[in-house]
UniProtKB/TrEMBL annotation:
Keywords: DNA-binding. PROSITE patterns: SSB. InterPro entries: NA-bd_OB-fold, Primosome_PriB/ssb, ssDNA-bd. SUPFAM superfamilies: Nucleic acid-binding proteins. One of its GO terms (molecular function) is single-stranded DNA binding. It comes from Streptomyces xanthii. One of its GO terms (biological process) is DNA replication. This is Single-stranded DNA-binding protein. Residues 117-126 have a biased composition (Low complexity). Residues 117-149 are annotated as: Disordered.
Length: 149
């Protein structure tokens, strides 16, 4: 498959929004990723452009993100990049989404205490299901299966 897999390090920019959908639980939040470089002339690190991504976490990952991640926290997100182009209200919009396969705190910038989640039964979509309820907060990407193992 020719998917763009990536790992990004950034800060949580919005409070995670969690929804229980017929296809299963999902959490969404915005991630701010700012590149830094050392400016020898100033003798200091300077920030460059900030990129924003919408992170989608499905299933148990979504439930765990909702219970673990808050605005301003440094996180590492791994997943598939999806770039969408669309027309809204006569304007052209481009958005970069990450369908997360893993989300965790960036331990190079602080500490965290892991708590094992209790088992939870996620609703599963029937095979070949085309019609899905869309959350009112944004158009959702295709659901991703839970990783095995």
């Amino acid at each position: 498959m020719n998917e763009t897999l990536l790992t990004v390090v950034g800060n949580v920019a919005t409070t995670p929004v969690f929804r229980e959908l017929p296809t299963g639980p999902v959490a969404r939040f915005r991630l701010a990723v700012t590149a830094r470089r050392f400016d020898a002339g100033q003798g200091a690190w300077v920030d460059s452009h900030t990129n924003f991504f919408t992170v989608w976490a499905w299933g148990n990952l979504g439930a765990n993100v909702q219970g673990s991640v808050s605005v301003g926290e440094p996180v590492i997100v791994q997943g598939r990049l999806k770039v969408r182009d669309e027309e809204r209200g006569g304007q052209h919009w481009t958005s970069a989404d990450i369908q997360a396969t893993a989300v965790g705190h960036d331990l190079s910038r602080g500490t965290a205490a892991f708590r094992r989640a209790t088992a939870r039964k996620a609703a599963t979509a029937t095979e070949g299901q085309q019609a899905r309820d869309e959350p009112s907060f944004e158009i959702e990407p295709e659901p991703q299966p839970e990783p095995v193992g």
